[in-house]
Design goal:
The complex is a heterodimer of chains A (about 280) and B (about 450). Chain A is α/β, with parallel strands linked by helices and about 280 residues long. Chain A has helices at about 1-20, 35-45, 60-70, 80-90, 120-130, 155-165, 180-190, 225, 245-255, 260-270, and strands at about 25-30, 50-55, 75, 95-105, 105-110, 120, 145-150, 175, 195, 205, 210, 235-240, 270. In chain A, the strands form three sheets. In chain A, strands 2-1-3-12-4-13 form a six-stranded mixed beta sheet. The N and C termini of chain A lie far apart (about 50 Å). In chain B, about 10% of the residues lie in helices and about 45% in strands. Chain B is globular and about 110 Å long. The chains are: A alpha/beta (about 280), B mainly beta (about 450).
Chain lengths: ~280, ~450
């Protein structure tokens, strides 16, 4: 019996340690999926022995996958929640490594034919909580406002709810769509529609200028206003790892934070934040 | 479920779209337009109804795990803290240690939880409670039903997540079954300057999770803790202090306590008539500390420790709490109370090796009667027995996470008991040497 136990342990150990592949898996934020794909393509063309797989699904989905061990990197358009950190801590004895890789101006979209050019944060909140339901109340045409949002596993949804709705609930008639691209598509075809999402997706729709309050100037989400936090709903985009990266993973993170990796961010439509040499993985 | 519904809806839309696309060369009549519009409105209504159903169903979360294990003991018939007593002559066994299924219905600011345990020994209720969160600050919570006692760290650390196969001996004996019937409040600030602080405290029957109340007292149990994350250093220190303050009711007129007078340490009895129906304190003080850090390049490290001391009213042969009642609160026996002062502590280490492996070790001690040394047990006239002996346990093991659902655990417990007096006779004579009660466990867990 003892021999059987020793053999069983040896076989499992060999099996367990054998599968340490060189594929890097990335899962999470739909806001960041194009950016993550661009990074992966560029890096794989440089390092042909490394395979990088990128999928979306939402920030919450990515962080869950990180906790479950089914992804190496979670992309997220919101900070990790305390409850998620606790799960990571429980499973890996680590709070996880957070890497701020880019900045984004969370944009409010309307149809290109919609005459509304600017709104205050309070107006956006009132629209999405159902207190304002007609465009004429915010300077637009007579017509019911059609609300498009993201699903609750989306980091963009969580960030918008926390920072714009101040944790109030969305109006029940809000239509939840599975990705920012879907929101943009819906708003582009709906004269009465309104949506929100990353600045990089603002194509075929109009981005509304946002005022912090009635007395504030209306601000567009540009590189200058987002990096200086003048734009009222600026946010970071994150990579999360289980623990301090080593090997291929560390090299990849360092490359993302290098001028080459950061240079791709503006091409996608977001804004770089990390100065060269600031890699937290170099500690 | 969501995917199937979406496929159906897309199928209907595709079919509708296909039908419309078949004859694009001619002008669409008003009747056809209205018919199509009506069809789409119908689909929209159907979709809304489906969405309403799916939204309701998505609030119900089902999770669970099963732990199947093979154990090998050093000898048959041992009393083990590694999964229970081995029957006589049984040195190895297959066991379904836990088979849990948990139903959790989560509404906006409340949740209902029911967890049952299914093993070869039958079906039992583990959790059944309702929990309510304040909708304004999301800081204050209230829970009522059967749930984990808010004491220390180990009690609330799920068996599905815990690296070591079992809780320590001290926890198993002081707080058997982990759960209790009662109500508690929670203060868990989500953000702001007090977000590091947490408090859980409540009142409980104090008679085990599925037993009915059998005396006039409620027991207070509470833990006040802090969580101090140092994000930049990838380090967190969690700590807490706990109190269990309860009472048991004596169903006899006998109360035994350790009496050092007379030259020989012994259990002396107080048999005053007023002891019958009197109350005796069940009081535990605890402190716990957990350290998590990600300093080594091989993976995160956690170091956890807990120390509990207090007074346990028990019986002659059991150092679990005094509970002489049968089912339904009926007194099954007139049972003398034995008062013991105890201490117990442990320290455990978990070292992650990459994402799939963990090396684990734990050392724990439990002294059920701090006023008595092992050498005094078995001395003629002392009235002590094996219940008063201290135990030391060193466990080492390896956990292999096969995938997101499956993990294998290999664990070996080296158990050492305090030695009895050379003059010990009968069953106590066996404790003059170390009992052969080490246990090896190979466990497979599937969790979903």
């Amino acid at each position: 019996m003892k021999q059987f136990i020793v053999i069983a342990i040896a076989v499992l150990a060999a099996f367990g340690f054998a599968f340490q592949g060189e594929t890097i898996t990335i899962k999470g934020s739909d806001t960041m999926v194009i950016l993550a794909q661009r990074w992966a393509e560029a890096y794989m063309s440089k390092k042909q022995d490394v395979t990088i797989q990128v999928t979306g699904g939402g920030s919450g989905t990515g962080i869950s996958a990180l906790i479950n061990g089914t992804t190496d990197i979670a992309t997220s358009s919101r900070p990790m929640k305390r409850s998620e950190m606790d799960k990571l801590k429980q499973r890996y004895s680590s709070l996880g490594v957070e890497v701020k890789v880019a900045k984004d101006g969370l944009s409010v979209y309307v149809s290109e034919s919609n005459p509304v050019r600017e709104m205050t944060l309070a107006q956006v909140k009132d629209i999405y909580t159902g207190k304002i339901s007609n465009w004429k109340d915010v300077g637009g045409p007579e017509g019911k406002i059609i609300l498009y949002s993201r699903e609750n596993n989306s980091g963009t949804y969580v960030f918008f709810k926390e920072h714009v709705l101040e944790n109030e609930d969305f109006a029940t008639r809000t239509q939840n769509l599975p990705g920012t691209a879907s929101v943009v598509n819906a708003v582009s075809k709906d004269k009465m529609g309104i949506g929100y999402g990353g600045a990089a997706y603002a194509s075929g729709i109009r981005t509304v200028l946002i005022k912090k309050d009635d007395a504030s100037p209306a601000i567009a989400p540009t590189e200058e206003t987002v990096l200086s936090d003048t734009y009222p709903i600026s946010r970071y985009l994150y990579l999360y790892l289980k623990s301090k990266p080593t090997g291929d993973l560390k090299e990849y993170i360092d490359w993302i934070l290098s001028p080459e990796g950061q240079g791709l961010i503006t091409k996608v439509g977001y804004f770089p934040v990390t100065k060269v040499g600031d890699s937290p993985t170099k500690k | 479920m969501n995917q199937r519904i979406l496929l159906c809806v897309f199928g209907i839309l595709f079919a509708s779209g296909g039908a419309l696309a078949q004859d694009t060369s001619r002008a669409v009549s008003r009747e056809e337009y209205e018919e199509t519009e009506g069809t789409l409105e119908g689909i929209g209504e159907t979709l809304a109804a489906i969405k309403s159903t799916v939204d309701a169903l998505s609030k119900l979360k089902i999770s669970g795990y099963v732990q199947s294990q093979y154990q090998v003991a050093e000898s048959g018939g041992i009393v083990s803290a590694a999964g229970g007593i081995f029957p006589s002559d049984v040195k190895s066994r297959f066991v379904v240690r836990r088979g849990r299924i948990k139903f959790n219905y989560v509404a906006d600011f409340s949740q209902y939880v029911l967890q049952i345990d299914v093993t070869q020994n039958g079906v039992g209720i583990k959790d059944a409670y309702v929990s309510i969160l304040d909708p304004w600050e999301k800081t204050f919570g209230f829970t009522a039903g059967i749930f984990d006692r808010p004491f220390g760290f180990e009690i609330g650390y799920s068996s599905g997540s815990r690296e070591m196969p079992e809780r320590t001996r001290v926890t198993q004996l002081l707080l058997p079954g982990e759960r209790e019937l009662g109500a508690k409040i929670e203060i868990l600030p989500q953000d702001g300057p007090l977000s590091f602080f947490n408090l859980r405290a409540g009142v409980f029957n104090g008679v085990l999770n599925t037993a009915n109340e059998n005396n006039g007292f409620k027991d207070f149990i509470g833990r006040m803790g802090v969580q101090l994350p140092f994000r930049e250093e990838n380090l967190e220190i969690d700590a807490g202090v706990s109190l269990y303050s309860g009472k048991v009711t004596n169903t006899s007129k006998f109360v035994y306590s350790v009496d050092p007078s007379g030259g020989v340490n012994r259990f002396a009895v107080d048999s005053s008539a007023s002891n019958l129906g009197g109350s005796l304190g069940r009081v535990y003080y605890g402190t716990d500390l957990q350290l998590y850090c990600d300093l080594l390049p091989i993976g995160g490290t956690s170091l956890r420790g807990e120390y509990i001391t207090g007074t346990q009213p028990g019986s002659s042969v059991l150092n679990v709490f005094y509970n002489p009642y049968g089912s339904g609160g009926v007194i099954s026996a007139s049972l003398p109370v034995y008062m013991r002062k105890f201490t117990g502590w442990y320290v455990s280490l978990v070292q992650n090796l990459g994402g799939s492996h963990q090396l684990i070790a734990r050392y724990d001690e439990f002294d059920p009667n701090t006023e008595v040394a092992g050498a005094e047990v078995g001395v003629p006239g002392s009235n002590f027995n094996d219940t008063d002996l201290r135990y030391y346990t060193l466990g080492v093991g390896w956990v292999f996470h096969f995938d997101a659902n499956v993990k294998f655990t290999f664990y070996y417990d080296v158990v050492t008991n305090e030695k009895t007096a050379e003059t010990a006779t009968g069953s106590l004579a066996a404790y003059k040497n170390d009992i052969h009660d080490n246990v090896f466990i190979f466990r497979t867990q599937f969790r979903f």
